[in-house]
Amino acid sequence: MSRNEEATSILQWLLPQLECVDIPIVNVKVDATTRRTKPLRGDLWISRKPFNSRHFEEEIIALIEAKPAHIIPGSSQWNDAVQQGKAKAKKQGLPFFIVTNTQGHWNYYRTSDTQPVQLDGEEIRRPLGIKDLEVLVTQISDTVINAVRAVALPSRSYSRKEFQDALWQLKNIYRNCAIGNSDKMIHTTITFVMLKHISEQESLRRTLPKTVLLWDDWCLDHMDRDICATIEDIKKCDDYRDVANELEIASELGTEHCRDIREELNRFQFSGCNFDLYGAVYESFADTKMKRDFGQYYTSRHITAALSELLLRGEMRLPNYDLTVCDPACGTGGFLTEAYRVLLRNCTAKGALTDHTLKKLKEETFYGYDIKEKNISLARINMCLAGDGHTNIKQTEDSLITLPTDAYDYILTNVPYGQYKGSAGDGFTFCNKRRYETLFVEKCVRALRTRGRAVIIVPDGILESPSLENFRINLLNEALVEAVVSLHPYVFRPYTSEKTYALFLEKLPPRERGRRNPEPVFMYILENDGFQKGDKRYPIRENDIPDLLQNYRGRARGLHSFVQSHQINPSNFHNLLPEFYLNYYEHDYSSVNAQTYQKFIEQVERINVGLKGLFNE
Prior knowledge:
Elements: H1 3-20, E1 28-32, E2 42-47, E3 60-66, H2 76-92, E4 96-100, E5 106-110, E6 118-119, E7 122-123, H3 130-139, E8 146-147, H4 160-176, H5 182-204, H6 223-235, H7 241-244, H8 255-265, H9 277-285, H10 288-294, H11 301-312, E9 325-327, H12 334-350, H13 355-365, E10 366-370, H14 373-386, E11 392-395, H15 399-402, E12 408-414, H16 436-447, E13 448-459, H17 461-464, H18 469-478, E14 479-487, E15 500-507, E16 521-526, E17 529-531, E18 539-543, H19 545-551, E19 560-563, H20 578-581, H21 594-616
Parallel strand pairs: 3-4, 6-8, 9-10, 9-12, 10-11, 12-13, 14-16
Antiparallel strand pairs: 1-2, 2-3, 4-5, 6-7, 13-15, 14-15, 16-19, 17-18
Helix pairs in contact: 1-12, 4-8, 4-9, 5-9, 11-12, 12-14
């Protein structure tokens, strides 16, 4: 297998699996030698420390040798990988190593004799998280082939479920000190999380003055005062200025309550977290009204993760290219955090994750805008917790006015809906409707660089309403509509039940604009997303997201297929709904004459003008 094929296999299959078992991507190095193994290069090293720590190599706990999917145990190529893994693990001083084809076969071998390693009496056939890898690395030896979890060393790896269990304990603490306000509980919890994250970052490279007390410095006897002093000191420092203003704990908390909260959160590591921490906090503490209000700024993270992966997984130009990624209506930063993680994985798989690359990701790559200052603060916090990249997230009075033209390589966004009453000028040409959803899509196209790509979550009307046919015609003439993915109405519950679609598009070069591109449009109906279709949204087995990721723009079958350009035409008002073409339900446009319909719309608009005149009088 060539290095390029190997990198692709690691990127598309291996790294996402490691993230699923809560191994931070920053704790991984791909296709790298160590001081001990030179000149031998390991396919993937996993360490307790991040890649840019000077202690990365001495804290390595696992080596993975990756093969393509068609290589299976017992084949000559697999046996070669076993021998290579044994040689590298022996040089590094690891008691075991792993060989996988990334899509089904995971074998763990003892380094001394390549015998299968066991965990709790069973051979291991799946990826393990850092917690279990530490069990193996501390117990497996020339004389021990079965590791037992009961004597594992403590680990800071954790899952969303474990974090939510801790939040339940925090809720009891808040109840004991008479804090019943949801917003106050959320704010205090996020403050503790951020203070721990800052302390973790400072342990790697100290930027704050030594006089600033951090997580482990707070005195047990007056912890509440020490925490408030830490917050005030951090607000005076430049490095955390963008997020410091959001740091505040409830005044009702005493020293004992602060001790209990710190003890509950102390086992977690928040830097480079693999899931949406703010979303978990919000879901645990928010009341029904807050969740309903929050829905307009929140996109479910498993959806943003999948869409970000589809848009960015082939992006490998960093660090030799000034890549720009934007969300012009970023809300709390869901799309930006997931895009950051995808690009982090891409750089890791390419072997290009250096301090220079990381600095570029953090300071020059990501741009986010929102009209609400509160959202900007939360987006910055979310980006910090994901690994950083919050430098260019800013408040704007109106993205439709301030968003620059020809500026971004990628745009990921969930557009706002409804009637637009702002002061954006008359430069919009896709249609004469002054609605947020139509104006935002056009603005996104304008903001992309030539051949730049976007994924935009839009309501159904924009893709099928006969009154918006001109909008769709202009969109198809200015951009290549790459794909339309139907999201079922429960995807964003309990926040909203709006029926939405993910629209993937690419901005055409000037010479190709003004006429229809003949490329077919890939359409997909996501019937299940792994969660119950209702307000409770508990996990279920049925999940089409893995199929979407695997078959995106692939062979046609079932509820996904390519729709030819000529099928999208005036007879169906240039309908772009997957359900229309994939026989999901029947539309009958045959009895609607386009000219008659247009006259009807014009009459309705004249009536509206007349009614407005009466009311103004």
